[in-house]
Design a protein that fits this description.
Elements: H1 3-6, H2 8-39, H3 63-74, E1 77-82, E2 85-90, H4 93-102, E3 109-110, H5 114-120, H6 130-146, H7 152-170, H8 180-195, H9 205-221, H10 224-231, H11 233-236, H12 240-265, H13 275-288, H14 298-329, H15 331-344, H16 359-372, E4 381-382, E5 387-389, E6 392-394, E7 399-402, H17 404-408, H18 451-468, E8 469-472, E9 486-487, E10 493-494, E11 500-503
Parallel strand pairs: 2-7
Antiparallel strand pairs: 1-2, 3-4, 4-7, 5-6, 8-11, 9-10
Helix pairs in contact: 7-8, 7-18, 8-9, 8-14, 9-12, 9-14, 14-15, 14-16, 14-18
């Protein structure tokens, strides 16, 4: 006989108390479960397959197109699995801006690709994170400004480079030519003058090889086989494109090391010629002060310069080539640009101050950047902490793709998003306006370091070339035949084509 049998009233009370305790515990568990599920509701997405994830649903040649289509079905925040890798995609202007600007800290880290991590190893400014990235970004911005970005000295460098490019185009005497190399060399010389302290001749084999190999590296980086290597390295390492990418990377690195060697041998701390000199002087100063564990070391120099050189050449040169192709494609728009240039500038040299008096031309340049859509998926981001975003739980360390193409082609932000239409950047009075959804340089903490330089270059190069030449399709090719389909690559450049540059001065 137990104690509860002796005291039946106590037995009833204890049983009731126990039932209440159990009921309370059940409610707490259920409430906690529902609350946790609500808080941890993750972004939706297509059902993944084991190991392959959603790869069979994605066009690896143009993954950004697939992701835009998926956003129509799953919403502006959704999940895809690239093989075993979980990725949250952000689509549309409002969502991308909210993440990159209003949640800048949470979405502010970079998620390096395997092919970049193997080379950069966390150094440099483009793919790095943490204190090293902060210091390299701060130093890069400061020195890009010191060596010309946003200043009259840089404007003069660009204008001078325009003269060299015009000489090259004149040699074709109106015959059809491929715009790739002349434009790449001209644009690259601007970043070379800032980084290395000097420009190079277009027939300098070391310079032309450096530019060509760097651009080839960017093109290979977006190929389907390199994307598969990033996800499945044990398979992808056998692809020919991967071996070529590694060989190409090694060549570019060694070429830069040779340039650094020469700059070190001729370094004068009292007269810095460019970014590399400034970095070497800073490194030397810290070492003389007994600081040997700073972020100013050879690996950071090499990777930062590599990023500045590649980004400072490819995206701007590609946008400029899109601009020339679009002028040949739409001659009536080219007519309006040249009429405005003739009326406002005449035969004198174009200056940055002319921009405010060239609203239509400025609108054409911005619309070229929008339609060109050179970096459609941005570079991958990574969450720095657990974040609740638009009602969805995104775990710390999750890869995030801000889909810039969905911003530049957002149907709720642009009147005719899939049409080349400079009126997107003009008000009713014909004055230039820049919509908030114009975001080709990304936004937030990871906005392009060289945005100011790129804008200067695009304006001066484009206006000067349109001032001197009329661009037309090759003989036998109509405007309708000019193909605006982008070439497959890490950035979107025009497919190989030729144009005629007919002198009009």
């Amino acid at each position: 006989m137990g104690i509860l049998d002796i005291f039946p009233q106590l037995s009833t009370s204890v049983s009731l108390l126990g039932a209440l305790v159990v009921l309370r515990m059940v409610c707490m568990v259920l409430f906690s479960g529902f609350s946790s599920q609500a808080y941890r509701k993750e972004p939706p997405g297509p059902r993944p397959l084991p190991l392959l994830g959603n790869l069979l649903q994605i066009d690896l040649k143009r993954p950004y197109n697939t992701l835009v289509k998926l956003s129509k079905k799953h919403g502006s925040v959704f999940t895809v699995y690239l093989g075993p890798k979980k990725v949250v995609v952000l689509a549309g202007y409002k969502t991308v801006k909210e993440a990159l600007v209003h949640y800048a800290d949470e979405f502010g880290d970079r998620d390096p690709l395997r092919i970049t991590q193997e080379t950069n190893k966390g150094h440099g400014v483009l793919w790095a994170n943490g204190e090293s990235w902060k210091e390299m970004r701060r130093f890069s911005l400061m020195n890009l400004r010191d060596f010309g970005m946003g200043k009259r000295a840089c404007e003069d460098k660009i204008t001078e480079e325009c003269d060299h490019l015009i000489q090259v185009l004149n040699k074709f005497k109106g015959e059809a030519f491929d715009t790739t190399q002349p434009v790449n060399y001209a644009v690259s010389n601007i970043i070379c003058s800032i980084v290395y302290g000097s420009r190079f001749e277009y027939d300098d084999p070391e310079f032309t090889s450096l530019v060509d190999q760097s651009n080839k590296r960017i093109q290979l980086g977006g190929s389907p086989s390199l994307q598969l290597y990033n996800l499945f390295p044990w398979v992808g390492k056998w692809f020919a494109n991967n071996r070529e990418f590694q060989k190409n990377t090694d060549w570019v690195l060694n070429q830069n090391l040779e340039l650094f060697k020469h700059l070190k041998e001729t370094l004068n701390p009292q007269m810095c010629r460019g970014f590399v000199d400034a970095f070497l002087v800073r490194k030397q100063s810290l070492e003389e002060s007994g600081i040997s564990n700073s972020h100013y070391h050879d690996d950071n120099l090499l990777m930062t310069v590599l990023s500045l050189f590649a980004a400072g050449t490819d995206t701007t040169a590609t946008t400029l080539r899109w601009g020339l192709l679009l002028m040949a494609k739409y001659p009536e728009i080219q007519d309006q640009v040249q009429e405005e240039l003739s009326r406002v500038v005449g035969s004198r040299r174009v200056q940055l101050d002319d921009r405010k008096n060239l609203p239509f031309t400025d609108a054409v340049i911005h619309e070229t950047q929008r339609v060109g859509n050179v970096v459609p998926m941005s570079l991958p981001h990574k969450t720095t902490r657990d974040v609740l975003f638009q009602g969805f739980f995104i775990k710390k360390g999750t890869t995030v793709y801000p889909l810039l193409t969905s911003v530049l082609y957002d149907e709720s932000e642009w009147a005719t998003p899939h049409t080349f239409n400079p009126a997107h950047f003009l008000d009713r009075d014909g004055k230039f306006v820049k919509p908030d959804a114009f975001m080709p340089f990304s936004a937030g903490r990871r906005v392009c370091v060289g945005e100011g330089l790129a804008r200067m270059e695009l304006f001066i190069f484009f206006t000067t070339l349109l001032q001197h030449f009329r661009f037309t399709p090759p003989p036998g090719v109509s405007e309708e035949d000019l193909d605006l389909t982008p070439r497959v690559g890490f950035t979107l450049s025009p497919v190989p084509h030729k144009l005629c540059a007919v002198s009009c001065m």
